[in-house]
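Entry: Phosvitin
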Amino acid sequence: MVPSDPEIIRLISSLALHHKIQANPVLSEIAMLGYGTAIFKYCAAVPTCPAELLEPIHELAAEAIAKADIAKITLLVKVLGNAGHPASLKPIMKILPGFGSAAAALPVRVQVDAILALRSIAKREPKLVQPVALQLFMDKALHPELRMVAAVVLFETKPTVALVSTIASVLKKETSMQIVSFVYSYIRSLTRSTVPDYATVAAASNVAIKILSPKLDRLSYRYSKAIHLDLYKSPVMVGAAGSAFIINDGATILPTAVVAKARAYLAGAAADVLEVGVRTEGIQEALLKTHALEDLEDDRITKMKRVMKAIAEWKTLPKSQPLASVYVKFFGQEIAFANIDKAIIEQAVQLATSADAKVLLKDALKALQTGITAQAAKPLLAAEIRRIFPTAVGVPMELSLYSAAVAAASIKVKATITPPLSEPLNAAELLKADIQLEAEATPSISMHTFAVMGVNTAFLQAAVMARAKAVTVLPAKMAARADVPKLNFKIEVLPVETPEHIAKIRVETLAIARNIEDLAAERITPMVPLVATQLRSTERFASTMSSTSRSASQSSEIIYSDLVPQLRAGVPFHKTICVPAAFIGIKGCFEVTSSNTAFIKDIPLLNLIGEHAVLVAVKPADGPAIERLEAEVQIGPKAAEKLLKEINIIDEQTAEGKTIIAKLKKILEPALRNSSSSSSSLLSSSMFGISSLLSSSSSSSSSSRMSKASLKQYPFKKFHNNQYLVSQGISAQNLRSSGSSASSFEAIYQQNQFLGNAVAPAVVAIFRAVRTDEKLLGYQAAAYLDKTNFRLQIVISALAETDNWKMCADGVVLSKHKVMTKVTWGAECQEYATILKAEAGLLGPSPAARLELEWVKIPTIVTTYATRLAKYIPNAALMAGITVNKAENSEKEMELTVAIPTERTVDVIMKLPQMTLSKLALPLPIALPIGADATIQVIPEENILEQIHFLYAEASSAQCSMIQDTLTTFNNRKYKNEMPISCYQVLAQDCTPELKFMVLLKKDEVTAQNHMNVKIADMDVDLYPTGSDVLVKVNGVVVPISNLPYQHPSAPIQIRQKAQGLSLHAPRLGLQEVYFGKDTLRVNVADWMKGQTCGVCGKADGETRQEYSTPSGYQTKSSVSFVHSWVLPAESCRDSTQCRLKHESVKLEKQLIVDGQESKCYSVEPVLRCLPGCLPVKTMPVTVAFHCLPADYSRSVDLSNISQKSVDLRETAEAHMDCQCNARCA
């Protein structure tokens, strides 16, 4: 809000660069960001502002880059982004990859900040930034996140049709699916843009979208996405736009970064009102992985590196630093940012558990017991917005908004703790104390807002001004009690003195005209004539004497005869509405008064112009006064003592119950008959009323319609007690004992209709108003638990003596796969009833769950709204891509079935009385832990938190599997795994410098069966088949099957039996599960390891077009060459692993003509060959890339760095798969 000029900028500069400010990180950040904002404000008013204003920042940036000070570079880049001066382009480019040498030493997040800083410069000089952003986007060697951010900057420079079409053409050949998904979704969302500044971009996007394949729409949310939505109304020149950029790196559940931006348009001006960015890189890993192996780290990494050293040119992936960051921009200016890394988190935890924290807690508790009284007031200039633009008349037009507010509050808090806390303070004592808290608060706010529209010149000013004033005061007083030992919790809302009005809002519109040279002659005229206001008062008096209701409904236009001719005014509107809330003893009254100019024309603008007032008051309701409101919960054996009204449920089988029900029927029969008939008629009419809609809509969407036959082909098949979960080792006897012993819900219900006759309530909750006449008013709820029959009954009843309303909910777990609940409510729970069933079963071959809602009797209001809603279901469903079919289903039942054909897709079918809705193959963001045989995976953990973590990890993990010789990678690419004899290949490993795990696989020379080796922590685990069993060795020692499960003594690693094989679990080390069976093996890595693995299973990053990545990072096109590159070669033919192969570059046997001359060619990709002294026994062809040299090339060819040469052609070479060595082999 402070004006900016060179003098103020120099003052802010000296303040921001002062050594005392620089010594405080928080103050330095605020001052430096303000320095950049001051330059931006000055340059916005003076476009020719000198670059010298930025020299101090440029010098600091050069110094920070030279010292590689990451924190300083990050801050200065944000300052340059706030300034948005074109002279800052070169300093920013020094830290951009491809432009400056310093970029190689900087992390990706700093480079992202640098690219985002270009956006402010692009607003002033888009053509200057566009080539830089384009070069960054086109550079395929850059990190995908950098290229995606560059695409955002590129589109903000308003590219031409030719440039956007070029981008679309590049996407067709792009190998990174993250980039393809992000840019495609951005282009597609821009095609629907209607805001004026993106009109050319929207037109260009419509051209580009036709170049790209519509199949890209089906990419899952795991890939990066960009979303842009906007709305613009040309007649009033008002609009809003919202953008969200979701950037993912390794197809993980949590994205790497999320940026959300809101943009507003008013009278031809546009502003980025708010922008928030959050980065979560590495946080998931930091929270989920274990740190128990840090003592073993050096030895573990040394062993694994020794293994990987055998693979030539193996490169580790860069390790992301655990970091979370957030920034906030307001009107395009970054006002705050924070970086949170592991050190800061550990420091916060240490501070929270330190002695100082206990002292602070002790002081706070003492202050609460003594009593705290505080008063605070805060003034705020909430808004100051001005927009001045030229008009065709030749005078400037101004739109401005000013808003100022003052917020105040007075607070009183006092606590009582029994028994008193001991010295020294132990926080655990609070869980054994009776704590009472009393609080009283009176918050208030007063706001004044002025909106001005009119002509503004140096001498003459003529405008329309809307002036609004709002005052709110909302006092409150409450008391709370928590008696933890007795499991009693209570909250009371106490009476408090309230002002006459808790809220007052007044708006008036005035016409102002004045001459700066003669302010005394200023004219301020109400937009609504004063005579109309006076008449309003007269009419209010007259109408009060005659009829209050009639005066409140008058709104016709009147021309007053005693006024000047042609002067018209609408009849003022005045109305008072009071809404009683008898339960809490108050009523809210709203008094509305309005005089506007809508009599001229009924449009929104003329409805706003005039005088408006709204008064809100809270008054005592009619009847006995309310002393206080209470909410109390009692848990445990003392719950029954808190019941205020005896609970009885009518037993229909007894004579007394039959008599009571007969009396109730006489009272309720007319109402129930009308309600029931109207309910059924309304429901049937609503469903039959949409038949025409169904027929027309289904005919227009025949391509997506599912036939009735396909739905009826697989009826829902219920599980029986002796068939479900048997494959998991759970016997039928255990299954029956885990559910209810009764055969049906009815049988259990008839045994004991009201559980309160047999057991005491487990929980009682009371919500009531304490009245001065001591009559009960409110509700009580009691929960009863029958552990024998797995039955829960909840009864909610009214406390009033004459009120017999109750709600009864009765739920029973009938078996492991079926739950049923009956809900009745009304007088003695006899008026209305619904039944809810949930059960598991099969829909064809797929496991499924079904939810049924059956209504026996329901209120008329429900059917009324159901009728209205049903009319919109068919068209809304079709718009959402849901198939709609006419069907004759049950008239009083709704059914929802969810089937799981695969781990990552579901089929959803919903049956309504007259139609069936379905959505097949709906993709899921996570994999469900349900097998193909409809069995749920056993959860090995006992702790509930560990169970939740296990289910999340199983659902979000990436899986690589091999059945026979067919391998399916983490990214679901399938190929035949051609394995050499006796040589280990890297199946999957942690490819970061931490090397947390490594999974190796080889084919045994004797049995030709697979053997697996897992290196993790200080363990070397061998899994191998013997006959029909699978055995395990840990560090060379056989672990008998009878000793499983095997638990590592210090690390969270467990080996146990599973199905027909063995399973190793180490989720805290990134290895969710390794399963080894006789013909099947699986490797599951944790979600936070995605994008950080390597081996023949791939990177688990979702990049299916970049699947075949060799140890050197080279992308091969042959699956065979890819698999062979991950084979661990032998150092000699006497190697203990009996491997006799090595990698080498081979010469092409034939000479070819390349570029017009005879050439000799050498393979760029390594080929498996036998060691010297060994002969190949088994070979296979493999297609590899070759680099060619002239045939007369005289110098010796250095094959050590041949992999870095360019590819001239691809030819078939011979790879050795098995070798036989002679006795002289060394």
